[in-house]
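Internal QA ticket QA-208
Title: Verify multi-chain structure generation after dependency bump
Assignee: T.L.

Test input:
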Amino acid sequence: MASDRILRLWHYDGEALNKRQSTDVTGTVAAAKRARGGNGRVKLDEVAKRANVSTATVSRVFNEPEKVSEEVRQRVKEAARALNWIPNAAGRALASRRTHIAGAIIPTLDNEIFAHQVSGMQSVLSDGGFTLFLGCSNYDPDEGLRQADAMLARGVEALAVVGENHPPELFESLDARQIPYVVTYSYSKTSPHPCIGFDNRAAFSRITEHLLSLGHRRFAAIFQPEISNDRVRERLGGVSDALASAGIRIAAKDLLIGPSTLEFGAASFAQLMAQGTKARPTAIICGNDNIALGALMAARELGLDAPRDFSITGFDDLAISSRFSPRLTTMKVDNQQIGILAASELLAVIAGRQAQIQSKEIVPVLHIRESTGAPAK
Amino acid sequence: MASDRILRLWHYDGEALNKRQSTDVTGTVAAAKRARGGNGRVKLDEVAKRANVSTATVSRVFNEPEKVSEEVRQRVKEAARALNWIPNAAGRALASRRTHIAGAIIPTLDNEIFAHQVSGMQSVLSDGGFTLFLGCSNYDPDEGLRQADAMLARGVEALAVVGENHPPELFESLDARQIPYVVTYSYSKTSPHPCIGFDNRAAFSRITEHLLSLGHRRFAAIFQPEISNDRVRERLGGVSDALASAGIRIAAKDLLIGPSTLEFGAASFAQLMAQGTKARPTAIICGNDNIALGALMAARELGLDAPRDFSITGFDDLAISSRFSPRLTTMKVDNQQIGILAASELLAVIAGRQAQIQSKEIVPVLHIRESTGAPAK
DNA sequence: CTGAAAGCGCTTACAG
DNA sequence: CTGAAAGCGCTTACAG
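Actual output:
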């Protein structure tokens, strides 16, 4: 078997030999071979022996130090340091039924949005003595479920998932095991799940209203696919809501759905502008900054400029968006803050300071910049 | 204690009650309270009972299926499925001294470079039955060491770290515990560590030679800090090497070091161009695409254009770089491939198929685009 | 091919 | 405040 080699390496390393000498007077190679054989790491009971206390006391020094006298505490810490002891997480987890692991499932690591959320979570979790398992679903709910199952097997004590679009089994498993979880990034009052994020629908209504107030009446939208992405569905809904109030709707030919790439943004823009000046939209609402930036690049190649020839909006406020020419009108969400809040809530529930996760709404900020203006007369 | 609440929840959940009924005839609430109390999850021995086999057999069905007869195998799988059993990772880890966890320590998640590497690693590891612990050092070696220690406590079986710039204790711990590891992203023949990546020095020599061959003689460089970043140090070295061969060096005033942001790129460019036309550099070598893009944005605002007024290069080939105007001359590294190779090597060593990690050099590709040309006469 | 039983390295009621 | 001992949920020599 493949794993035998690894075990053998450990079996014969220096630590293991030392240990054998000090605890097994009759120790011979044969005897050692018959024994189960540890992994060569220093164990808690060696610390206990060196400090002249029981294993229970060593454990308490690190888990409930207030229950141990100052003097003994020092002696044990000293011994642990001298032996360079690192507690074995599997042993701890098995005995305490606590793993101190949390999980997060995000769609992708490929943009700064979720990276910021993860970094916020990680800082809070690490302060709370937790480690983070990270899974990327690549926008595939089934893959997300697989990742979640793997995390459950590893005994995560809490889970954060981006968005609500996950197979029901995911939430059922979580509920069945009483694992606290939180939906991040999106927020809705009517969600059956605790969520920390913003209202995608309201945000896109707000963007649309900004364009309506500038006088735009012919709208187009370039969006990422809404299949298995509740956030996108909500965003499109928000656009429709606001337009409906003004008695407007987007024609099928002016609603373009495709991958969230610069290329798709560019190609879509070219397609929209291929229509006659009278027919083509004056305002283009993009599902995110990436698509909008792609459109702006195509515009430059076509000799078109915003806001002179058209207005355009994004969403995310990427670092480059406020620096681009024209500076992009977009909305910013504090994703790091979402991560921080999500992790804090999860830790509070795990620690029993709170009975359940408190949903929180984050309000995105609209940054009105050069890419939007009144339509040409 | 905070954790009591959690345990109590588990103690009284449905699964636990069922289990008690079926295994403890004299069971009363009092008896249950005296017992240690499981965590409510279905255990392997319940699967064994239902399938009428020993626990050893159940274990074998999932770990060494070839050792179990077809018939028994089916019965056990059936029972496991019916009970919805998920093996407890801590139990497995403790008994087998295998955690099936690997770790990766990267500087940041905030750009697509390392995200691609992580995604490459994750796909290979997941196919090999491994889960990934991810740690971000934020370019702080001490933070990286802390993360590595936390991972060792969790029993990672292998570790990938970006770059060689880590405290020696990190590599010492790894060696002491015989944990296979690999340095990723950078590669050098003389490294004491196995590495999978590219030669930063050679890459930047190549970029510099491209500019020299176009006829440039006055050079500037805008770089991220080289403190605790061996990759940056190598890159600057590569520039110097190539320039030295042509008898050229960069004046102190033309070597600008600062944060890897669009803003720093923009500010640095403005500063360089503030010099008189005769004195200022005609070629600007940037430490990465982000800095170069910032410089190009500043150029636009100053009414300067590449390659007419200056030439500029980046590194990374971000998605936006080939779409920007002017399209950026830069080098591309297949980071996903680095991740895939690193994970494959680590798994091969863990599985004993290989005695040690094989270093591999990846060759970056130079993309010559619009941002570089011959200097103005 | 299968089972009985020891053991992995910790924590935690329980007793003092 | 401290210790003896059981137990967490698995795997794995060993024996048949």
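Spot checks passed. Residues 34, 36, 53-57, 60, 67-69, 72, 91, 93-97 of chain B lie near DNA strand C (CB under 10 Å from a C1').
Status: verified.
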